[in-house]
């Protein structure tokens, strides 16, 4: 059975690619996944760097930046766990006047519904830009508190998150510093699946088809059949549109269809089919799915699950 399910998952992915070919490819498919999210003063594994070591992720105006501070306790806000202040000098005692441009490159495969958030502080004033567009700013002399920020409008591929720190005139020692903490991304993903009915009862009543997953690339998807006849042959119909046709006393909604892709139900009358969304599937692609199950208790020996409509976000 496991081999049948693996083969069926491959067939389903192939069917989704074929379904996409029937629709205009006017939108580039979005992808999921984010890399490059680091707080200031973190190493590649997310641990705090030893004080005074070069900062590997936030490049400042082509110069080296350094992590950690013991110079300004009680003046700079305490860095939350997992982050440190960084500065253009290893001593962090003083820095030339002017602007320092700290750049973090974040790679986004799938910006759909995505936003970044975090907290920051600067000495002195700070401005935040995404891909050259101003997002927010904080005024001078507010380095004793953390400020929250939210960034939307991310693009697929590399995104440049730039923190501009202005080191203004000071009376004595005059450090310049940047702190970014709790940097994270969240993604709001609406359910792409709709139950459109069409079940035809069998021995256990109507088989039930449900789905999970967002139809985005890196998030697993699953089609789950339950309440079907146990240990019976079943077939999954997949289509890019719906022109309903009569079928074994019921109605088949995915049509014109690909398949059916044959699987066996479990002893409890279930099938769980995981699948990955194929790369390049256009936004707005419709995916119609419905299961037919051999069932001696159905009106013509075949029961039908409800049909589902999935729409690629």
What would you note in describing this structure?
The protein is mainly beta. It has 2 domains: 2-29 and 190-311, Immunoglobulin-like (Sandwich); 34-187, Jelly Rolls. It has 1 helix and 22 strands. The protein has one helix at residues 2-21, and strands at residues 34-35, 59-60, 66-67, 86-87, 98-108, 114-123, 125-130, 133-138, 147-151, 157-167, 177-187, 193-197, 208-212, 221-226, 233-239, 245-247, 250-252, 257-264, 271-275, 286-294, 302-304, 307-311. The strands form 6 sheets. Strands 1, 2, 5, 7, 8 and 10 form a 6-stranded antiparallel sheet that branches. The longest helix has 20 residues, at 2-21. The radius of gyration is 28 Å and the shape is rod-shaped. Mean pLDDT is 84; it is low at 1-8 and 16-31.
Number of domains: 2
Q: What CATH first level of the largest domain would be assigned?
A: Mainly Beta
Low-confidence runs: 1-8, 16-31
Helix content: under 10%
Strand content: 35-45%
SS class: mainly beta
> Span from first to last CA?
32 Å
* Main sheet characteristics: 6 strands, antiparallel
Q: Remind me, CATH topology of the largest domain?
A: Jelly Rolls
Radius of gyration: 28 Å
The shape is rod-shaped
Secondary-structure element pattern, one letter each: HEEEEEEEEEEEEEEEEEEEEEE
- The assigned CATH architecture of the largest domain is Sandwich
Mean pLDDT: 84
Q: If helices are DSSP runs of H or I spanning 4 or more residues, what is the number of helices? A: 1
Corresponding CATH superfamily of the largest domain: Galactose-binding domain-like
